[in-house]
């Protein structure tokens, strides 16, 4: 029998002593990483998920009749909301696809009324998701530690990064043969699979109205099912993930179910450590909405400039009812803003958090 969800209260979070100093260290380290990339590319790019693979618009459909524990926040009222969705590769630099690491799926939902987090002034809700159900670093302290290693590696030649990615990918493949896996190995060496054929996770929890949850976007269309066995040969195409994803969008509707995993057990579902996977036998993922992205040109020149250069996706762009929770999320609230400000300042391009879908180019 599934346990009832635990209620949200402000004391579900337990910040560690000195956390702000840790967050300041993350910002400093990732800014230095961005400066290294800017010197090489002569342009500032996102400090993570820099290389986009598809840039789509569509609709988020919230069904009628959700049970009370799921009809929370954005999902409290049935209806249809426009969305803009950015798919991207993980590194904070634009590398060839043989460096296949973790991936991201950032969702901006429009026409979202309600109380927002301080500083968020438009009627939007962002969900920033990534491949893999956990964030390997776990906490802000781990984020700083692992980020320091990544930062030192940023100046290495691309061939060295490809070798690390290959080693991590093969190690994880060996683990899978024994029924095991490593989230950190997957982070650095993700399979050469199709970006539209896998789920994307919030990894860390968010407030879910009266409760707490993690979110997942899970692919559900038959056309996406057919992509499960697709594998890229990066020797043939160093931008193959983008080419394959854009080609699929050109001919097919892409559909993801947005699912919530409610917080039901404080022991097995920690709030502060995002490296712990919440067991689905304690709390299964349950569908709260469906994202429909119709067939489209998902990489027009105008759209690429807008999504990659101007538009921002942040956990801080949120309803108060979906406030990010836990150590990693508290870090992200500050880190995303600082790095976005750096990127836009260096490039001389004002950052945009559009209020309506009409701002997004065709």
From TrEMBL:
Protein's recorded name: Catalase
Taxonomic classification: Bacteria, Pseudomonadati, Pseudomonadota, Alphaproteobacteria, Hyphomicrobiales
Species name: Aureimonas phyllosphaerae
InterPro entries: Catalase_sf
Molecular function GO labels: heme binding
CDD domains the record matches: y4iL_like
Coiled coil (UniProt feature): none
Origin superkingdom: Bacteria
């Amino acid at each position: 029998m599934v346990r009832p969800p635990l209620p949200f209260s402000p004391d579900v979070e337990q910040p560690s002593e000195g956390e702000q100093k840790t967050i300041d260290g993350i910002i400093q380290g990732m800014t230095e990483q961005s400066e290294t990339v800017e010197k090489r590319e002569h342009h500032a790019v996102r400090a993570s998920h820099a290389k986009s693979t598809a840039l789509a618009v569509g609709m988020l459909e919230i069904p009628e009749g959700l049970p009370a524990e799921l009809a929370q926040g954005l999902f409290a009222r049935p209806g249809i909301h426009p969305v803009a969705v950015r798919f991207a590769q993980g590194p904070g630099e634009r590398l060839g696809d043989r460096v296949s690491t973790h991936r991201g799926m950032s969702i901006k939902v429009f026409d979202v009324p309600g109380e927002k987090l301080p500083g968020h002034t438009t009627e939007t809700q962002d969900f920033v998701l990534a491949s893999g159900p956990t964030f390997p670093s776990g906490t802000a302290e781990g984020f700083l530690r692992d980020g320091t290693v990544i930062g030192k590696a940023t100046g290495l030649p691309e061939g060295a990064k490809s070798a690390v990615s290959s080693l991590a990918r093969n190690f994880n493949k060996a683990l899978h043969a024994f029924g095991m896996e490593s989230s950190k190995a997957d982070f650095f060496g993700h399979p050469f699979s199709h970006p539209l054929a896998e789920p994307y996770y919030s990894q860390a929890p968010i407030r879910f109205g009266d409760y707490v949850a993690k979110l997942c976007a899970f692919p559900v269309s038959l056309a996406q099912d057919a992509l499960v066995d697709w594998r890229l040969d990066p020797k043939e195409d160093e931008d193959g993930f983008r080419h394959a994803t854009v080609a699929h969008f050109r001919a097919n509707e892409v559909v993801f179910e947005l699912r919530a995993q409610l917080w039901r057990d404080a022991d097995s579902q920690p709030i502060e450590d995002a490296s712990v996977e919440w067991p689905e036998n304690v709390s299964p993922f349950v569908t709260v909405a469906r994202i429909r992205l119709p067939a489209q040109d998902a990489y027009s020149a105008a759209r690429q400039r807008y999504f990659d250069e101007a538009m921002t996706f942040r956990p801080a762009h949120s309803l108060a009812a979906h406030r990010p929770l836990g150590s990693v999320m508290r870090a992200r609230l500050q880190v995303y803003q600082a790095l976005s400000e750096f990127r836009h300042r260096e490039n001389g391009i004002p950052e945009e958090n559009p209020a309506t879908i009409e701002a997004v180019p065709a």
